[in-house]
Amino acid sequence: MPRLNFIIATILLAASAAPAIAGPKGWTALNASRTYAAIPVASDDTVNPLRGYYRWQNQELVPQSAPARDAYRRYYWKDLETAEGQYNFSAILNDLALARSQGRKFAFRLRMMAGYDDNVVYAPAYIVNNANCQAGCGFWADTDTTVPGQTFIPDWNDPWLQQRSRALLAALASALGPNNPDLAWIDVGMYGQYGEWALRSSAYANPPAGITPATDASKREYAKMHFEAFPNQQHVMFIPYSSKDALTFGLLEQTITSRPVGLRADCLSRCGYFDQWTNRPAEWAAFAAQWQKAPFVSEFCPFSSGDPQNNPATARQQAAALHITLFSNGNFETSRPDAERWGALTAAEQNDLLMMARESGYRYAVASSTVNLTAGGALTLTTTLRNDGSAPAYETWLVKAELVNASGTVVWTGQTSTQLKSLLGGGASASYQDNWTLPALPTGDYLLRLAARDTSASPRAPLKWTIGERAGDGTLAVATLRRR
C-alpha cells in the first residue's frame, strides 16, 4: 500500500508540474461600422433576375454586362400534341434544361393561333371538325382581302375545345412537375392571335352559324385553366382593354394561385398603345398598383430607327409611367438582320434602351452596416437597405449573413430578418438588426458577408447589390472576424 500511494503521488506531482495546454481564447471583439456607395443609375448595368432585359426567343440584342437571368420561349399547340392525348413536350423540357444549365429561370407561353392569312392551323389536326365540336371548333376567315390566304379562327367558346386545352395544360404541368422552382413566369396564353388575347374585328365579319366572338365567360375559362394547372407558379396576363373582365378575374377575384398575377403587354414603344388604359383612368385604377405585388412583363412592337413616335424614348417613358419591369431583348428595329439591329440605332436610341433597363425594376443597395462581436461569439449585425429602383423583387430572396473561411468555404450561415419585397422602390429604405451566437470554429480569419439567395432554385447566383463595394458574385463583405 505505501508503494502504491507513492506511485499515485508521483503521478499527481508530474501532472501538476506539466505545462497547461492553452485552449482557444475565443473571438476577437469587434465593433465596426461602414457605409457604402450606391452605383449611379446612369452607369448601373447590374443584371438581376426578373428585371431589365430577358432572353427573348434565344436572342439578346441589347448588349449587357452579363447574360440575362431569365429566358423566354413560346410554343404552338400543334407541336405539343400530335394526336389526341399524345403529348411531346421535349422542346419545352429541353429549353428549360438549357436555361437551368446557364443559371437562368425559364418562362413560356402556349398558343393556339399565330398571325393571319397564312393557311395554317396551329391547333392539332384532330381538333378541326371533330365530332365532339359544336360547330367544327373553328372556321376559315379572310381577315384582309389585300393579302392572299386565310386564317383559321378557333371557336374559343366550344366546350370540347376548352376541355382539350385544359388537358394540354394539365399534361404539361405533370411533365414539368409541381412547384417547379426553375420557372420564372407563365404567360397566360392559348386565346387570341399568338395567344396574346386580341383578334382583328374582321375575323368575325362573316362567321358560320353557331360561332361568335369569345364571351367573357370563355376568356375566364382560358385564364382559369392556366391557374388550375400551375397554381403555385408566377403568371402574367395580357392587358388588352377588350379582356378587362378576364383581367378582373385573374388579378382581383380568383383565389386559385398562391402568387399574385402580373401584367403582360406587347407593343412597348408603340405610341398610343397604352391609351386604351390611360384614357380610362378610373378603370385602370383597379390594376394600376399591381406592379407592387407582381411583375409587369413587356415585349416590343418593332420600330424603325428615326421614327418620331414609335421609338425607344417612347418605350422608356411607358416603362417609367407604368412600372414595367421586364423587356424582351429582341424584336425591335426589324428592318435589318439580328446582327445589325443594335448597331443600326442612333446613339440616343441606344441610350434610351440602356437607360430603360437601368431605371426599371429593383435596385437594392446596402446603405450601411454595423458589426458587433463579443469574445464569446455573440454577433449583432445591423444593416440599412434601400431600393433605388422602380419596383420590388417579386421572388423570395433570403438575405443571409455568411462566414467564409480562408479556403472560400461557407462555414456558417445566419438568416437575417430583411424583407426585400417590402421595399417598393423610389429610395424606400429600412433598417434591420439580427443577433446570433457563432459556433466554436477553428482559429483563423473569417469573412462576414451579406448575400441575397434564392434557395428555391439551383444553380442560381446571388442577387447583386447595386453598390460599388460588392464582390464579383454580387455579395457584400461587411467585416473580417478573427477566431483566436
Strand content: 25-35%
Question: What class do helices, strands and sheet pairing give?
Answer: alpha/beta
By CATH reckoning, the class of the largest domain would read Alpha Beta
Distance between the termini: 47 Å
- The radius of gyration over CA amounts to 29 Å
> What's the CATH architecture of the largest domain?
Alpha-Beta Barrel
The tally of strands reads 20
Q: What's the tally of helices?
A: 10
Average pLDDT reading: 93
Please give a quick description of this structure.
The chain contains ten helices and 20 strands.
Description:
- With 484 residues, the chain is α/β, with parallel strands linked by helices.
- It folds into two domains: 133 residues, Immunoglobulin-like, CATH 2.60.40; 308 residues, TIM Barrel (Alpha-Beta Barrel), CATH 3.20.20.
- It is built from ten helices and 20 strands.
- The strands form five sheets. It has an eight-stranded parallel barrel, surrounded by five helices.
- The N terminus is likely disordered.
List the helices and strands and how they pair.
Elements: H1 2-17, E1 30-35, E2 52-56, E3 70-76, E4 81-83, E5 86-87, H2 90-101, E6 105-111, E7 138-141, E8 151-154, H3 159-176, E9 183-187, H4 216-229, E10 235-238, H5 244-253, E11 262-268, H6 275-278, H7 281-284, E12 296-300, H8 312-322, E13 326-328, H9 338-344, H10 347-359, E14 364-373, E15 378-387, E16 398-404, E17 410-415, E18 428-437, E19 444-453, E20 476-483
Parallel strand pairs: 2-3, 2-13, 3-6, 6-9, 9-10, 10-11, 11-12, 12-13
Antiparallel strand pairs: 1-14, 4-5, 7-8, 14-15, 15-18, 16-17, 16-19, 19-20
Helix pairs in contact: 3-4, 4-5, 8-10
